[in-house]
Predict the structure.
Amino acid sequence: MSYNRQRVLFYLVFLFCLCSACRTIEASLPELQADEAEAFTPKESIMSIELQINMAPVLNLVEKSTPKTFTGAKAVCEGVSYNYDFKRKPIVFSTSSNEVNYTLKGDFSLKLNYCPLCVSLLGKSSCTVPRISGSCGIGEPRRRYSMTYGTSIKLNKDYSLSSQTQLKNFQINDPCEITFINIDVTNKVKAEVENELRAMESKIDKEISAIDVKSKVDSVWKALKTPIELGPYGYLFMNPNRIAISDLRYNDKEALFNLNLFFSPFISTQKQEVINNNLGDMPDYNPVSGFDITADLNAGYDSLSSLLKKEFYNYEILIKGREFIIKDLSIIGASEGKLVFKVSFDGHRNGIFYLIGTPVLDEENQILSFEDIDFEIKTKSFLLKSAQWIMSKSLIHQIKEKSSIDLSQKIITIKSQLLEKMNGEIQDGVMAETSIDKLRIMNLLLTSKSITIRTSITGDLKITLD
């Protein structure tokens, strides 16, 4: 009887050991961080954008709005009366540092008559002798003239254009002297024509003020508010706050100015709702060189896990002669400032356990590694009772070594994505030319569902408006 009981006990122990050898090892899910870490305080960045406006439409407007013929007359009873006819050639445009100049050249003719003395009878004046008539540029070469206008243009705080146009020079090159009465009427005619030409100043200014610049600036603002796709890395949100614009300067037929953009950019793996606040009036402009941007990359743990999965899939480790194969390694969240890793394994045994580790950034070499990797406290307690052989320093060391991520290549890819999206036509008539000097990761912040990476971007941006 005793012998049978021993046999039964032996079979029970053998069956228990057999079942234990085949049993899946699965540690309890650890408690993840409940309280959210305080997010990075958004840091406002300033970017100086060089904008270039093609002045051809404005210059064409000036050419179109300036009459090709000036005619006028002055009739008096006593003295010289005249009619004039001025014609111009196409306007020649030029620029100085702060204004646009346009020169008109052409020719003119005059008809004149002269009365030495008039008398009034019954309220009607008449010449006492027959009038003496003459002409200039009629039946002979027309007389030549030249005139030059100068216009300075300013962009106002409400993004409207205002201008100040002045007649800088008006010169009659060929005097028009009527020799038979020895009278030079050139200056008289010049004074009359100048009055008409100066009336053109306000007309030109009115035409320029009607040019719609605000809609072009709104197009740029709208483009800046639109998330920029970065492929698998998510979206770049420029998050603009306000802009300031310098005075205009000129180079040939191009108007140049600098725009300071004040914004708080961030990158997110998830597309977020954009607040479409309208563009407000401009603050005062202060010169800034290029851009130095601090941008926050909000990455879900899934995106970081995908990098680790590629490294660890089917990674084999020998632990005390036992085969241990990692099938999956992913980040499921954070706990007390450390990341929590879920490890699914196969081999001698199969199952799931959890590790914890602190992410550390090597800012100089742009390498993300995980220090202090250890078994999570619930996993450690479970393994001590069920599979102590897994708790190997060799396992921890190899996971730590292999989990280091060289971010420099990822940064090159992101930089390439940014350059692709921020060069070329970004809106109708809006062309961008961007260069990036540096793109670096500066800091890390853990939350329960994501990791925020603070980056620094420096470079230059030039925008051309047609």
About this structure: Residues 186-209 form the longest helix (24 residues).
